[in-house]
Write a structure and sequence with these properties.
74 residues, alpha+beta, three-stranded antiparallel beta sheet, 3 helices, flat
Length: 74
């Protein structure tokens, strides 16, 4: 039997909360939403449009991407 510690469970919950946030935001954005792993804050959902060109260090920390849901092509 595998035992999951409270720390691992909290880490897992933080990841899925950030993914859910990114998915919700992506529905109403032209830009991709990324979940990045941060040593101090855990997981963060960021909008690519807020940051312009992402730095290589930031790109290396991306663990999930939700594509933007709004298209301006008609």
């Amino acid at each position: 039997m595998q035992t999951i510690t409270n720390t691992a469970a909290a880490h897992n919950n933080a990841y899925f909360a950030a993914v859910a946030n990114a998915e919700r935001r992506a529905l109403h954005s032209f830009f991709d939403q990324h979940v990045i792993e941060d040593e101090e804050q855990g997981y963060l959902a960021i909008d690519e449009g807020d940051y312009g060109n992402l730095t290589p260090a930031m790109i290396d920390r991306i663990v999930y991407t939700a594509p933007g849901g709004i298209l301006d092509e008609f």
